[in-house]
Write a structure and sequence with these properties.
- The protein has 281 residues and is an all-alpha fold.
- It has twelve helices and no strands.
- The chain has helices at 3-10, 23-48, 52-92, 96-111, 114-131, 133-139, 142-145, 149-174, 177-185, 190-220, 232-243, 247-274.
- The longest helix is centred in the first third of the chain and has 41 residues, at 52-92.
- The model has no long low-confidence stretch (mean pLDDT 85).
């Protein structure tokens, strides 16, 4: 034990002062109590209204819908991340035309509802492709383009690419300029500096915003049920239309919550792993 540790251990610290019951604290406790009561009421309702026959009948459909939701989100996030790279580069570019185009793209897709974007892509492109159906049939594309899946993927990809581009741009610009200058003084090229110096630091900054975007995509994916895709919410709507049992929606909410919480804990674990070098043990 060092001398400073001996000194700090010998110093008698004053006892912690009790926190006063301010209006904000009382409001917070009241809201927590309200949420606790709502949770208890939900458990009581599910216990009394439990229908094992309905659960056994709809559970496989829920799992199929969950798989569709996961596929939609994963594919859209991957394609969106690829599209976000040139958009982020254009946003940081000194070329005014490229910067203006990227700014307009980001402004539009971040400023309009995802539902409206999905409808524009689904009904707009769908109507156009229907008008040239013979040509698409000759090319063998009609069986693919008549389904709602590619339109949902395209809409979600365009939407998340706008958000990911801003996340990436902000993360890169958060790295101090001195990092670029130091790498240049060591003889590294701009690409080597970006890949070996800037991006590892930028990805730590971008991890949380990326995780938030992924969570928003999971929750926003429920709107594809409105364009005939039977994801988790689509299967939930079908189960309710056949049973008129409100607990079908509660089950869906629990599945969404479990998915988001699992993702949150995974991101926490990844963040702890990649930031170990920033903390002393």
């Amino acid at each position: 034990m060092t001398f400073s540790n001996h000194v700090s251990a010998a110093i008698e610290r004053p006892p912690a002062q009790p926190k006063p019951w301010t209006s904000a604290r009382m409001l917070g406790v009241g809201l927590l109590a309200l949420w606790a009561l709502l949770g208890i009421g939900l458990v009581i309702y599910l216990t009394r209204a439990w229908n094992p026959e309905l659960f056994d009948r709809t559970f496989p459909a829920y799992m199929r819908g969950l798989w569709v939701t996961v596929k939609l989100v994963v594919v859209s996030m991957i394609l969106g991340s690829l599209l976000a790279i040139p958009v982020a580069w254009a946003r940081m570019s000194k070329n005014r035309v490229a910067s203006a185009f990227a700014y307009g793209y980001v402004y539009f897709f971040r400023g309009t509802p995802l539902l409206a974007q999905t409808f524009l892509v689904y009904y707009g492109l769908g109507e156009y492709f229907a008008s040239i159906r013979p040509t698409l049939q000759e090319l063998g594309l009609w069986n693919f383009l008549r389904d709602a899946w590619p339109y949902a993927v395209l809409a979600f990809t365009l939407n998340t690419a706008a958000y990911q581009a801003e996340i990436l741009r902000g993360a890169i610009e958060s790295v101090p300029r001195g990092q670029w200058e130091g790498a240049t003084s060591l003889g590294l090229s701009r690409w080597q500096t970006l890949r070996k110096v800037i991006m590892p630091q930028a990805m730590i900054v971008a991890l949380r915003p990326y995780a938030n975007e992924l969570v928003l995509m999971i929750k926003g994916s429920a709107i594809v049920a409105l364009i005939t895709i039977f994801d988790l919410m689509g299967e939930t709507r079908r189960a309710y239309s056949r049973s008129f049992d409100f607990q079908t929606y509660i089950w869906a909410a629990i599945i969404y919550l479990a998915l988001v919480e699992t993702l949150r804990h995974l991101i926490d674990w990844i963040e702890r792993r990649i930031t170990r070098h920033l903390f002393r043990h």
